[in-house]
Design brief:
Elements (H helix, E strand, L loop, with lengths): L3 E4 L6 E4 L5 E3 L4 H6 L3 E4 L5 E3 L2 E5 L8 E6 L5 E6 L1 H7 L4 E4 L12 E3 L19 E2 L8
Parallel strand pairs: 3-10
Antiparallel strand pairs: 1-2, 2-5, 4-9, 6-7, 7-8, 8-9, 10-11
């Protein structure tokens, strides 16, 4: 399976991804939990986004690395981009796409990971709150 086509709830924002991700993170940090996102990561040049989004960067962090984007109409979390500060440090090397916008049947066979973002110090790798699982294929709706 190749291209994935995602959209927000109202259909005004469309995201085209050329390939399925190797894994998806469902992080338990405050930002991920409250935005309702499951993130897959791509290079920004790989992703096509159409539609109007608004952005939000955390105000509880001195130097947030991500700016969450959401549909300006329905409010669905669509993706994140790196902040200017993060781009200056690391380059524009990554963006996250909210895979909750995908049809879960298109994600069958992908590993879903559960990083412990609440306990993460901001340095090094994540610990995990539970064992990863493989997303299964669900029956088509009737």
């Amino acid at each position: 399976m190749g291209m994935l086509n995602l959209s927000c709830l109202c259909g005004q924002v469309h995201i085209k991804i050329p390939k399925r991700p190797d894994f998806i993170n469902e992080c338990n940090c405050t930002l991920c939990g409250k935005s309702g996102a499951r993130w897959a990561y791509f290079h920004p040049s790989e992703i096509g986004i159409e539609g109007t989004t608004k952005g939000y960067s955390r105000e509880d962090k001195e130097d947030p690395a991500a700016e969450i984007q959401f549909c300006a109409n329905c409010g669905s979390t669509t993706h994140f981009v790196l902040t200017a500060s993060a781009v200056s440090k690391f380059g524009n090397i990554q963006m996250g796409v909210n895979m909750r916008l995908a049809d879960e049947r298109d994600l069958a066979g992908i590993e879903l990971r559960y990083p412990d973002g609440l306990a993460w110090s901001g340095k090094g790798g994540f610990d995990y709150v539970q064992k990863a699982r493989i997303i299964g294929r669900r029956a088509a709706p009737i």
